[in-house]
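We store chain and fold; thus.
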Amino acid sequence: MSADRDVDHSISGALDLTYGDSWLANVGDIFVAAEQSGLPTNQDVNSGNPIGMGMGTVCIHNCKRLTAADAYLQNAPSNLTIVADAAVAKVLIYDSKAIGVETVAGRRYHARSEVVLSGGAINTPQTLMLSGAGATNDLLALGIEPVVDLPMVGQNLQDHCFAPVGIAFKTDISGGPDSQSPSPMGWFKLPTLNHTPPSFVGHTPEAGTEFVGAICLIMNPQSTGTVRLHSTDPNAAPAIDPKFLSNPYDRFALIEGVRETVRLLSAPVFSAKTIKTYFPKDDSDEAIWASGPNLHCILEHADQSEQEHIRGSTMSSWHMSGTVKMGNSPSHACVDPSFRVFGLNSLRVVDMSVVPFVPNCHTQSTAYILGEIAGDVLAEEYNLMAPSMHSMARL
């Protein structure tokens, strides 16, 4: 950490961040590979300058993963009630005012003052459209009565798409229970097993090998996709078209990212012991394998190989954003700078769907910041308390 960590980082926030108590054995090789490839070492990737090889922080403290629930619900106010397993089907709107919500089970909850949607960049636009807020013609085509024409609802979907690259190499497998090539699932809590794809459970590295994988993310994507309704059933998933790599800039950036990652994983510290290169294609666990110590054998026909790899393996990082974006006009946006939905009273949206573009960072911190800002906006409007340090004016 830099000496100016008080400037770059809060030391009094509600969520603890650490670098972890232990690192994998091959982390040191990655830094050696970066040095051999001419990449700088970055002692603090969150200082405002992310360039270089560094370690990222994690929300783990005292051997426990921390979430927003730990940060905000440990000392929850007495007037807060959380209803679990109550997915919202639609917002109840009367005379252009949000008066409550109806759940999928048919139960209704009425709002005393306002309704705030925080369903995320996929579910929030779906809920708005099911409630009659969206592109009028699209709603009418599904038999939904429009309450406000907002053509940008469900548009502008952005995400940090990525393509993976990996290598496998021989290793000394002496010592430690994890050196016996056990099933990775032995290290997961039992409740997660029922939701894990069989392809993940079935993949175990070959005996005597280690695997180093990297993902090349497009952090400033220019491609935008859509979230649209194809059913009035709130239980039916919306039609999601991310349109990854539809913009030429993104294709260029991802190919260059794959090339740079190949260069990193071809550094002498790895090339001397690499036995296979690994290009996953999808979650079915299919892969293209190439035997040999030189990762560049994959790129013998560089353009064709890279294009095929990217087409077959590009996927979402689940950082979806921007589908109910904030702005100054309902013709180009969905909510105003105070998170209020255009054309409707007492309805706000506070989640990653309101950001005009996906930020060049992990979206977790941005989502928390949005919640802090919206809380300050509401507190100020209703004279509940003084704005906090995260107020919009400070940002």
Q: What stands out?
A: The chain has three domains: 1-77, 83-157+320-381, 159-171+208-318.
